[in-house]
Hints:
Keywords: DNA-binding
InterPro entries: DNA-bd_dom_put_sf (IPR009061), MerR-type_HTH_dom (IPR000551), MerR_fam (IPR047057)
Oligomer: single chain
Organism: Streptomyces antimicrobicus
Radius of gyration: 23 Å
Pfam family, one: MerR_1
Helix content: 55-70%
Protein name: MerR family transcriptional regulator
Amino acid sequence: MAHEQTVREYRTEELAEAAGIPVRTLRFYRERKLLPPPRREGRIAWYDDHHLARLRTIAALLERGHTLGGIAELTAAFENGRDVGQLSELLGMGWSEETPVRLSPEALADYFEGEVTPENLAASLALGYVATDGDEIVHVSRRLLDASSALVREGVPLAAVLETGRQVRAHADAMAALFADLVGAHLADGDAALKRLRPLAKSVVEAELTMAMDRLLAAGATGTAGAAGGTDSAGGAGTGGAGTASGGPRGDQPSS
């Protein structure tokens, strides 16, 4: 028989003590809407472990140089994002071979130091790269997370990585449709054949991309491929945050 999990609740003073902050600071965060409203019982405000987790996230992001204003914007984007319940949709209804990664907001900030802006978070949510699960963020692909963070460490702005990801998504969808048409036109078992033969599609795409990169390198065409290939010039949701660091003075934090 399953046991219900007990929800820990805190009065204002108890929550402040657990978070290691003054009550004044807690009330300031609540006024700035950095915390969800507490449960009210008469004149008593009751908080729970989600409020405690949010306070610890705020403290961790402040330590990383984020301002309270920036944290408020990140929180708004986070709360308006897709729920983890939509992961089956994002990952292809259970067909995906990708490995999701669970991250705290501060761990995500560590992956992309100085680049986790509200614009970039909103773009990642819109692309379906990340979803929310309570106080955690779920990135839908370990490989995409590692590749994008590696590009950022090399000096490529995260906004540019996300915009390129948006364009790659469109080409990848077109290639997947080509392979599906090929299989559907010649094999009778439809989706079963597509699932069985998907490694072949991946091999073809990887080989063709490798040869395309070889041709670019041989031609010395680094930086000119977009002009030659006529890439999409429309700005995506992530372009607004290019190179924008969210660090800065924390002048809006109250003194303790």
